[in-house]
């Protein structure tokens, strides 16, 4: 069980354009080598189901997630509904500022292997952190990562 947070800043880019590019998941594999495939099924105007396959260490990580787009606030909430790990939920948030905008990514994750959490969670957390950073760098060449936080939680802390 763990949490990860990434903050990044972009100068000279419109927050609406950044929000649209972040939310256009099906084009990620054009920008990022580690993304093998993404398919998106629109459920309604603000909700979709996306299926992901990404290169992860020496294998492929697969999952499906429900994505909810709150255009007014420039937030994309995601919740894994099935996949190779137990839990992967969080959000992307785009915040307008004087020089451009800021991107905030936050996620809770759980591999679902309780006996090995203390060993595997920090490894998986670092891989997830690197994956999200690779996506951001692939999408935006002038991005500046300002915060990288990884916190692993024991069972007692999560409760």
TrEMBL record:
It comes from the Bacteria. Residues 17-131 form the Coenzyme Q-binding protein COQ10 START domain. InterPro entries: COQ10_START, START-like_dom_sf. This is Coenzyme Q-binding protein COQ10 START domain-containing protein. It comes from Geobacillus icigianus. The lineage of its organism: Bacteria, Bacillati, Bacillota, Bacilli, Bacillales.
């Amino acid at each position: 069980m763990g949490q990860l947070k990434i903050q990044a800043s972009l100068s000279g880019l419109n927050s609406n354009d950044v929000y649209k590019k972040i939310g256009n998941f099906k084009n990620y594999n054009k920008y990022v080598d580690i993304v093998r495939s993404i398919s998106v099924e629109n459920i309604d105007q603000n909700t979709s189901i996306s299926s992901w396959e990404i290169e992860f260490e020496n294998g492929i990580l697969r999952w499906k997630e429900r994505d909810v787009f709150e255009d007014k606030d420039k937030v994309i909430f995601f919740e894994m509904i099935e996949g190779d790990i137990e839990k992967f939920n969080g959000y992307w948030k785009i915040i307008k500022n004087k020089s451009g905008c800021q991107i905030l990514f936050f996620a809770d994750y759980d591999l679902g292997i309780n006996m090995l959490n203390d060993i595997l969670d920090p490894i998986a957390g670092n891989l997830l952190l690197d994956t999200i950073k690779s996506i951001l760098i692939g999408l935006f060449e002038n991005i500046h990562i300002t915060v990288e936080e990884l916190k692993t939680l024991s069972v007692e802390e999560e409760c």
